[in-house]
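Inputs:
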Amino acid sequence: MAESRGLLRRRHEPWITLPSLLWLIVLFAVPAAIVFAIAFKPTDPFGGIAAGWTLHTLQSLGDPNYPAILWRTIWLAVLTTAICLLLATPTAYFIARTPVRQRNLLLLAVVVPFWTSFLVRIFAWKVVLHPDGFVKHVLAALHLVPADGSLLYHAGAVLLVLVYTELPFAILPLYAAAEKFDFRLLEAARDLGAGPLRSFWSVFLPGIRRGLLTATLVTLIPALGSYVVPDLVGGPTSEMLGNKIAQRTFVDRNLPHASALSALLALAVLVPSAFAITLARGKRDAQSGSEA
Amino acid sequence: MPDFIQFEDVSRQYGGVRAVDHVTLGIRKGEFFSLLGPSGCGKTTLLRMLAGFERPDTGRVLLDGVDITELPPERRKVNTIFQNYALFPHLSVRQNIAFGPQVAKRPRREVDDDVEKMLTLIQMRDHADKRIDQISGGQKQRVAIARALINKPAVLLLDEPLAALDLKLRQRMLIELDMVHDQVGITFVFVTHDQGEAMSLADRVAVMNAGRIDQLGRPAEIYEAPQTSFVAAFIGDSNFFEGVVAETLDAEHVRLSIDGFHDLRAFNDKNLRVGDRVVLSVRPEKIRILREQPAPSPDHNVARAVVDDVIYLGTHTRYWLRSAEYRLAVEQQHNRFVLDEKPITWKDEVWLQWHADDGFMLERYAESDEALMAIPPQRVGELDAAAGVDEHG
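Outputs:
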């Protein structure tokens, strides 16, 4: 009985997934393939794409500036993700342990920044960190920063604002996982002799590992591709790959070059996420496999 | 010798409600002790105070003479079997059992040996590397027991450990728990709302009601000589009659005046005096149903009754009867009536008889007990409505 229902479901599955599959093909797979293909096209003098194929653009990726920018992109994104997880995990734990009424208020507080335009919020940071701004003056008065220094236009500012932008995206999946976590397990850990920290580390974190994985992906991927934040609060020494792609597209009008960089970035995103997903799936299969 | 575990005047309040209300209780070393009561009576709070998850507002908790009131759970020689076992889902059976010793940083080889011993004890060696969601409810309980016992606790706390199991399994695990207790010989404190579990396992039972201990004693004492109407109603079933002490017959017996009955005798173990308002409680299985009027006997009480309902239950039959203003439950072991040409059935007029010593008197019950005692009559009412039986006087 269950078997035949399973068969039935399997037969209908393609039809049910067809709309989303079409969506993915038309709006993701095909454009991605086009971007990849353009990387192998020559440019024409008017900023367009010429006929024929060439490897010239790929060779130009050997530009000695790129390794530094790629490296900076990766460490800024990884550090952003790490700081977000570090801040978001205790936050998610705290929200999940709060009584339901206050919990919704806290969640609202997490989501509230989204009601303001992303650009406006980044510009607000420019105001906050402005060389003549309040924060700067206070820090300078405390001799924490040099009086003639700047809080803006360097990698530190980019990191700070990236963390600010990505933090809610880290909190939400972690909260979703923490909310389903059975907190009695922490009591069991305490009962068995583990202190509060050990219980958190050995029982709570493994319990929300799915949420940790999701939070990592949803912060790491946008951070790797970020362009607006380094463009507005960063300087020439804190350029990320996204800035270069934009520059090649809008300033140099060199679409093949921009495409090649995009492909590079896409691979940089796809490879770690594919790895993480296989890892997670492998674990799940191992579980369900031995069950069957 | 002082008791192994001592609660000294402990209280715990949750937003105005006294979950535990000035409880003083001693539990002996090696004892299988049960805290029994309805949900919300404070039994779990008391257990959690012993485990270290709750701190009492007043009073102290002592273990083996040492005040442990302020100790966090991880520093108490006490381990708990949680209601749903709270096994770690991300660890295997083996890793779950090894959790305690690993946290205690015991040498690896020693831990491995101990885990193997535990796996053997609970007969789970073949399932040692399974995940928790791959084992059955009974196996989960065994893993929970092993995970606790490997730490060699001085006390094992069991918080309704059988509630998640089905009836057949519950009966088996009950026996297993008893065997484990005999094997390891440590003190067990078992919290349950199920009187059957408490009665069959415990050396002593504390019946809790509204944050207080109503009665403490051996299971038989609690069943045969309940001290309060709450205990009488909560442990097993009982028929309750309201009346007044009319006369003291001898040192141990009184005559009661109860509306609709005359000359009821009862055992007086509470020094009740003439004029005291009392509740007489008689267990259903202590009453006999007779077709003919029995020969008068000074030791027996007799009453006339009409059968309302007969429920055949295999091991016994339960009768609902009406006598005067009361609806009474009576249970009879099977005898000739079952196969009788003319078994006792609806609307038969019969005689009831019980020994005076089988009726025990309780002081007038509290308002809160009334809801509890009202359960059997309500059920009769439902049965009446279903069967369309006329209301008798």
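Remarks. Chain A touches chain B through 21 residues (CB under 8 Å). Confidence is low (pLDDT under 50) at residues 288-292 of chain A.
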